[in-house]
Write a structure and sequence with these properties.
The relative contact order is 0.21. The chain has 71 residues and is of the alpha/beta class. It has 3 helices and 3 strands.
């Protein structure tokens, strides 16, 4: 996998299915999550993804930290 894509909302139903489909199509999703996101739910929704996905905790309203994370 060498095609990276930024994905928000991966804790939800649609986002988790999108992440799985992106993996199937040889994309490498980088998942952004909020600090208060339910990590257990992320893992249960995405537990069958191989290889392990990249996960970053970032507030989308914090432009400085978001820019740093994306870079």
């Amino acid at each position: 996998m060498n095609n990276k894509i930024l994905l928000t909302g991966a804790t939800g139903f649609v986002g988790s299915h999108l992440a799985k489909e992106l993996f199937r199509q040889d994309w490498d999703p980088c998942i952004l999550r909020r600090k208060d996101s339910n990590r257990a739910r992320i893992r249960s929704n995405l537990d069958d993804l191989l290889p392990p996905f990249h996960e970053y905790e970032v507030d989308l309203l914090d432009a400085k930290n978001l820019t740093k994370t994306i870079a």
